[in-house]
Amino acid sequence: MRNITLANITEAATGSFDGLPDARQRALVQGLVGHLHSYAREHQLTHAEWRAAIRFLHQVAALSTDTRSEFTLLSDVTGVSSLVDLLASGPDATPGSVLGPFHTVGSPWVSNPANLIAGNDGQRVLLRGRVTDTKGRPLADATLDFWQNASNGMYWQMDPTQPADNLRCQLKVDDQGRFEIATIRAVPYQIPTDGPVWLDLVQPSGRGSWRPAHFHLIVSAPGQRTLVTEVFDAEDPYLDTDAVFGVRTALIGRYDAVTDTAACERLGVPGPQCLVMNFDVRLAGAPAP
Ligand code: BEZ
Ligand code: FE
Question: If you take atom 2 of ligand 1, which residue's CA is the nearest one?
Fold first, then answer.
């Protein structure tokens, strides 16, 4: 096309990807290019503004590696990660929430009930629940991948004072779909504040950097959609201002004083010191292939 104009450039650009062989990839690329063109038109984007946006993305890229992704943080603070989680959440199932940067594959397998407390200080708690399908039928083949931060707010990967694999595990539920993990109460902590996402975007917006305390869970079972989610603490002061939009009402759990002290004591935690949170997980059926 030798006469590109304001009237034909969007069609020319989107049409130039007609040859992408995979239909889904073609739709995603053409949709993105089309929306970017609409955005530029709507805001009458200037050279200086587009250069500034590209400079910002360069800075985001410069801080993104396999172990730290400023790009993922950008997706998190703009709500895109949470939007994709919500789109993937099945009806009647426990909703998804952000994976975050501190999941690493290969957590140690432990027996269920589990005790992760080891040398950690912090409030002793028992997280227990049941994994079912959306009809409430127990999924006896389900597995859980669990991780959380320590009482100083840090995950083990960020903190040389913690032993490897601190406060993370994988386990199988029992034949009723039940799980029990003795652990410590998670605490709130801040998203990274040393990169362009915080310094140039979130902080100037007057937003906070805190995430409310949470446990992370990945729950899988044969024939069901794998769920990546989080469980929040009902008493946390940051529930309404999570920096990454992860909170859903269905993911807020309450700690109760233990009535069944034997459950804590079986795990070596003195009953009167222990709080219990019940959190049941409903998995959605796998989508048709
Ligand atoms: C987290 O849950 O660990 C997390 C999620 C998004 C950004 C930073 C941390
Ligand atoms: Fe987290």
Answer: 100
Q: Which residues, listed in sequence order, are joined to residue 214 by a DSSP beta bridge? A: 232
Residue of 167, 244, 245, 247 best suited for mutating to test ligand 1, as the one with most atoms within 8 Å of CB: 244
Model confidence pLDDT, tens digit, residues 96-119: 999 998 998 999 999 999 999 999
Atom 4 in ligand 1: residue holding the nearest Cα:
100
Mutating to test ligand 1, I would choose from 84, 98, 238 the residue with most ligand atoms within 8 A of its C-beta, which is: 98
Tokens at residue 105, please? 């594959």
In this structure, what are the phi and psi dihedrals at residue 249, rounded to the nearest 5 degrees?
Answer: -55, -40
Among all chains, which residue has been given the structure tokens 């140690």? 108
| Cα-to-centroid distance, 91 and ligand 1 (Å) | 25
Cα of 283 from ligand 2 centre, angstroms? 21
Strands (E), the chain: 114-115, 124-133, 143-147, 168-172, 178-184, 189-190, 210-211, 214-220, 227-233, 252-253, 255-257, 275-278, 281-283
Q: List, for residues 208-265, the tens digit of each pLDDT value.
A: 999 999 999 999 999 999 999 999 999 999 999 999 999 999 999 999 988 778 878 8
In the structure, ligand 2 is a single-atom ion and the residues with CB under 5 Å from it are 100
- Under a CB-based contact definition with an 8 Å cutoff, are residues 138 and 83 in contact? no
Cβ proximity of 225 and 285 under 8 Å: yes
Residue bearing tokens 């952000």: 98
